[in-house]
Amino acid sequence: MKKAGRKSSVGLSDCRSSIDDYSTKFSSPKFVKRVEALTNEQRKVIEKTGLGNLLLIPNQTMNRKLLLELMDKWSSARQAFIIPQGELTLTPLDVALIMGLRVKGDPVLLKDDEPFSDLEEEFGATPEKRKIPINFLESKLDSLGGVVNHDFLRTFLLFTFGVFLFPESSGNVDSRYLSFLRNPYDACKYAWGSAVLDEILMWLNKRKDSSTQSVGGCLTFLQIWSYEHIDFARPGLLDNAAFPRACRWENRKHNPRQSISFTKMFHELTDNQIIWTIKPSSYELEHDIIRETMEVRKDGDKCIGVKELLHTDMAVKLEYVSDNGTSDGTEKVEEYEELLKPCQYDLQNRSYPSVLDCTATSSSLQSADMEHLSTSLGSSGESPAGNEGDLMLKNRELEERILELERQIDGLRLELKERQLSGQILKEENVELKKEVDDLKRENRAISLSSDNLVRRIEVLLSSDSLDGVEET
After folding, report:
1. Which residue from 165, 182, 280, 348 could staple onto 284, CB 3.0 to 4.6 Å apart?
2. Mind listing the pLDDT tens digit for each residue in 165-180?
3. Could you write out the three-class secondary structure of 321-379?
4. What pTM does this model have?
């Protein structure tokens, strides 16, 4: 799309030295501040464009150390983050759950031969420089105020693209996005979630292969993705039922001078700290965006279903070993590795044929898949094709049961957190009560001493009066 695809190798990406910092034009605070200034009428029309869920996402302070470590773990050859246990990938379902954006729909294509339009000219672009400065869009939004019309929608969406979803290192937004906004309400038919995924993948590859400090793409998505998949450096969980999931996590300020070694934390990761595949809960499946994503996975994405059956821990391992340990299994192992590796995307066209429209690549792969499934499930001499329907049904029942158990676990975790919070409050109240008791004891001792002194003084006075009376007599 904006950048041509590049060939890379594991050796190339792994030999690059890590970069100590990054620079970006991405700005969650700037976007959230602009959202907070919207009127109710403006919010309603933005929701009609299919991007309304973005208005719900709160500000997230970027954890630079965490993001830098993630970028360092990225392999452009494998299209995954490489950790000791295996590979973690970014998927369309991740984008749908975290950002609340469609991953099914018309592709977002910025074509080189896109004719220069009058709309682009109205926004200050030229045929030679098809860029719109972000500060121009900010000034335009300020001048529009509470106006609700097509001009407002186009300006706000371009601003959203430039600072939140597709920020560039130049601080501009590509004017060709206006080709999708001739009628802004038609924006809802495009797969903006797939475009967000494409953009962040492109920047991760560029940083790894070119050793550049500049980073674009939606960093809020990348950071929340880490919270969802890796159990460390997480902030507190605000609302386990919030959708999109970017609304679940509290905003924690990060001290860049903290002596936390994320490299060491990644190296010491254990299996129970990793969530290989996040799955939607029952209440998330009530949203059309998630439901249509899951329907596409069930209908066309054979890769995902096979992977989940072949690897019960849902880990994509770096090494594959044949069942009998002999060389006869080598060819089959290579076929499985080809099937299970992360689906490739087209940077030029921002499309995901292997993720959302994935079918079996050949009849030999399908045959090998079912043969392996038959072996792994313990079938003896039965034809896998005859039991395929039963396996699919059982798999669906297991998925539903897993979703229900995850919902119950989430509820128990929330209840436990509330109890822990309640216990902490009780402890603090107990400490305060102890302090009050100690203060009362001290006051009581002081009063007792004062009373004793008063009694002695009275006795002295009484004794003195008695002596005076005797002398007068």
Report:
1. 280
2. 999 989 999 999 999 9
3. CCCCCCHHHHHHHHHHHHHHCCCCCECCCCECCCCCCCCCCCHHHHHHHHHHHHHHCCC
4. 0.64
